[in-house]
Write a structure and sequence with these properties.
Layout lengths: L23 E5 L4 E5 L2 H10 L1 H10 L1 H9 L5 H19 L1 E7 L2 E7 L4 E4 L11 E5 L9 E5 L2 E7 L8 H11 L1 H4 L2 E8 L2 H10 L4 E3 L13 E8 L21
Length: 253
Amino acid sequence: MEDYPRGNPFMCASTAHMYDKKFLVHKKNEEGYFYEALLPQVLNASRRHLWKPLMQQVGEEEATLLSVCAKPTTLNSAREQHFEYIAIQRFFHHGVTASVGSGGETVDIDLPSTSFRGFSGRKLPNVTNDGIYAPYHTKFPAINLVLKQGSCVVGVQIHVNPHENVVTLFEGMCKVAGWPDKFKNIFLLYLSPEEDVKNLVQNIVNPPIHDLRKRKNSVPTSTSIIRQVALSRDSFDCLRDLQWPNRCSIGSQ
């Protein structure tokens, strides 16, 4: 455990600490190292109430988290968790600036850090104001983040290796939230730390245009498609200088 700073809320702490709620336990099996959550209800509540100090801690320990990701014995499930928290904390502190384009439509996202908001539950939030929306629930389905800019909304799936297509699940969530009637453009964005991973995922999410399934005799909605796109960290201003270990997740478990 010498590689893991004591008190880090995303790792196992062995001594009493202000964050000592035992968020995750660091374990090892025949495949390598991984993290197992204890008491999901406690984990979700702790993320909600300790969000700001958690984001601060992730920023302070970023170099250590990246060194863990570089180890060949670290599983991609752990790397993905670290990259997710690193990306979210950078958005939390610096905002989001990027161009998101797919299927002939491009939207410029420019959201300040002051627009960052958290939301509870396992359903897409009712996003009325422009902003960055992060779920407190650790098992939120399909995506890890929501970006809303004008008449455009983006669901962001953060990952480190080729990810299965989650557009069907995301589609159902959008319908429950009423997004097809509220927004001109709906994007599903797959965000990876490396260009090689992005290129692999781009092949998975083809075709980029996903038609929303409609019931017979239903009234056409204002938005009938979900635009899929894969981007790497280089497409986001605040992630370009992230020193992610090159190709560490390619071919890993």
